[in-house]
Amino acid sequence: MNRWVLLEHKILSSKLIDIHYDFLVEDELDCFTWKFHEIPSLNKGFVKIVKQPNHRLVWLSRVEYNLSNNRGLVKRIDHGNFSYISNNKESQELNILLNGKLLRGLLMIDGNFCQLTKNN
Q: Is this prediction's pTM over 0.70?
């Protein structure tokens, strides 16, 4: 179905709040997943990302969820469908068109960086 989701992940402790974003892209059996420390902005350059273990498909449909063992709160902040432009799993390159509200355009992932540009 080519779905994707951007989740805000808040980890609350007694002294601080850690916030990052989990970006999930549907694959056949699960979701490719990356951690973003900031949300990429259209035509604003590259953002550092970290590849994470694949996540279960259920995360594509969850709107908000409290994680067990004080691992925080996850809240969906954007989602939609995507179209592949290119996908090279060996080189960790992925180019997809996104149709969300925050993430709209061509998202280019290359290793530990991504960039969001206008779809021409």
A: yes
